[in-house]
Specification:
304 residues; alpha/beta; Rossmann fold; 2 domains; 5-stranded parallel sheet; two-stranded antiparallel sheet
Amino acid sequence: IYYGPPGTGKTHSANALAESLIAIHFLHKKENLQRFLKDKKTVVDGRIHYLQFNPNTSYEDFIAGYQLKSTSDGSETVPVKGQLFNIIEKANQETETTDKDNKIKLPHVLILDEINRVDLSRVFGELFSAMEYRNKPIETAIKGITLIIPDNLYIIGTMNEIDFSVERMDFALRRRFLWKFKGYDKDVLSNMLSQNLHDTLSEYIEEFVDACTLLNEYISTEIDELGVDYQIGHTFFAELPKIYEQNANLTGKSRSKLKLYKEARDILWRFSIEPMLEAFLGNTDKEMVQNYMCNAEKIFTHAK
């Protein structure tokens, strides 16, 4: 499970981990190297399955439920398998193997995005037991439907810790997964900015990254109402080059590189960072909020 503040690349990390897992197993057979280099996308993409949870996702959607269907005699309630069974079927149908004896099937990975948005104990149901007892039939709450999780199906989850604390997670879930915190990363931000850099912006990037880092340090250590779980993710700051480019293309009088940079930074603060911080501090005393916001803006804009 990757957990942490919004905008810290949890879904990206989940995809990268899934790709690595599949690639490592596929390349365990040396004869697969040429095929992998030629068509990596086909090897990886068909074996990564993605589901995004939302408050309306139910046990019936994910595991199984009953549906009313019309028949020649009128209508009847029939058991129907959920989305998980489609993915299990694909993992079971895997024909590629990773060992010399051709007994170990290539992995399939299910990425469950934003798992904190549902009642996991209810939605997962018998999946907890099925994950622990691989290849063993587990009876579901729906009569006639049995859940079997194969060895080659892996599950990666992401969760936004602001919406749902790790401490509140069901113990059954906590003990069946490894947990990895994803927070703000200044090195990742630097790389993201470099990849989308406007040439005239390059000389200000180091200064900008330092300001973002100092702002997150302030949020993490100086604002008691927030803390590390409320860091601003690097993907939000990475919007700077796009804002810079759009602002530079506006018609009007010519502006210096420094002025364009400051304008882009201030736009990012005003329309993205500031509203987010204010939302995080929603239940805090207004005078304290004003003080926090004033300090945060000074840090971000290098104001004295």
